[in-house]
């Protein structure tokens, strides 16, 4: 699949505002600042399709993109940002778990975690929800350029071992939007999800 023609469809404040639950959808989730929007831009070879920011919590809305008719990529708001009020966090966690459990068109979840501190509490919670709902998961250890090759490889192997705890269909790759490490693997994985 060629991801380059991907275009913006809509921003939703709530999962109820998402497009009709038809076709195939892949969602990108992760802590604030993990690199979700950057990964979407890298995948689609577009500089500013998804808004990126040095300020965590930039993506507050659910942004919907279309690769082709009936094939969507979803940029979910980042979680775990300390400055967000607890009530907002709890509301978002409920919405996220509802989305994962009810969205029929959701065929895969990309979970992005900074390679320097993977598997934080909320990441683990998300992974449990996803595997409990039988949603295939691709974990991306982002900003892989921040580690030297040896440390990167080590971290990847450990992260793959840690992923076994969640059971289900969970794959782990190292990824960098900066150096394109792991890009080919991500493309192959997502293409499979969209074509199945
Ligand atoms: P929210 O929308 O706030 O949830 O953040 P996000 O997950 O969309 O992160 P975003 O893509 O906006 O990136 C956050 C910061 O990390 C930005 O300053 C990016 O430039 C930086 N960043 C993203 N990907 C990489 C990468 O592969 N390598 C490096 N070194 N920095 C990256
Ligand atoms: Mg973002």
TrEMBL record:
<dbReference type="GO" id="GO:0000917">
    <property type="term" value="P:division septum assembly"/>
</dbReference>
<dbReference type="InterPro" id="IPR027417">
    <property type="entry name" value="P-loop_NTPase"/>
</dbReference>
<feature type="domain" description="EngB-type G">
    <location>
        <begin position="22"/>
        <end position="196"/>
    </location>
</feature>
<keyword id="KW-0717">Septation</keyword>
<comment type="function">
    <text>Necessary for normal cell division and for the maintenance of normal septation.</text>
</comment>
<keyword id="KW-0342">GTP-binding</keyword>
<protein>
    <recommendedName>
        <fullName>Probable GTP-binding protein EngB</fullName>
    </recommendedName>
</protein>
<dbReference type="Pfam" id="PF01926">
    <property type="entry name" value="MMR_HSR1"/>
</dbReference>
<keyword id="KW-0131">Cell cycle</keyword>
<keyword id="KW-0547">Nucleotide-binding</keyword>
<keyword id="KW-0132">Cell division</keyword>
<keyword id="KW-0460">Magnesium</keyword>
<dbReference type="InterPro" id="IPR006073">
    <property type="entry name" value="GTP-bd"/>
</dbReference>
<comment type="similarity">
    <text>Belongs to the TRAFAC class TrmE-Era-EngA-EngB-Septin-like GTPase superfamily. EngB GTPase family.</text>
</comment>
<dbReference type="InterPro" id="IPR019987">
    <property type="entry name" value="GTP-bd_ribosome_bio_YsxC"/>
</dbReference>
<keyword id="KW-0479">Metal-binding</keyword>
<dbReference type="InterPro" id="IPR030393">
    <property type="entry name" value="G_ENGB_dom"/>
</dbReference>
<dbReference type="GO" id="GO:0005525">
    <property type="term" value="F:GTP binding"/>
</dbReference>
<dbReference type="GO" id="GO:0005829">
    <property type="term" value="C:cytosol"/>
</dbReference>
<dbReference type="GO" id="GO:0046872">
    <property type="term" value="F:metal ion binding"/>
</dbReference>
């Amino acid at each position: 699949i060629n991801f380059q023609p991907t275009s913006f469809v809509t921003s939703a404040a709530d999962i109820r505002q998402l497009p009709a639950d038809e076709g195939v959808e892949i969602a990108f989730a992760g802590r604030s600042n993990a690199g979700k929007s950057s990964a979407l831009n890298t995948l689609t070879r577009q500089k500013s399709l998804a808004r990126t920011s040095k300020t965590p919590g930039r993506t507050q809305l659910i942004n919907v993109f279309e690769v082709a008719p009936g094939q969507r990529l979803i940029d979910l708001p980042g979680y775990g940002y300390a400055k967000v009020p607890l009530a907002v966090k709890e509301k978002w966690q409920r919405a996220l778990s509802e989305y994962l459990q009810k969205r029929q068109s959701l065929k895969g979840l990309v979970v992005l975690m900074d390679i320097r501190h993977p598997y934080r509490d909320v990441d683990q919670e998300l992974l449990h929800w996803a595997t409990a709902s039988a949603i295939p998961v691709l974990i991306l250890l982002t900003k892989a350029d921040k580690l030297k090759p040896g440390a990167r490889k080590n971290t990847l192997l450990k992260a793959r071992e840690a992923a076994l705890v969640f059971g289900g269909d969970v794959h782990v790759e190292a990824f960098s939007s900066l150096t394109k490490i792991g890009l080919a693997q991500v493309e192959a994985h997502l293409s499979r999800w969209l074509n199945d």
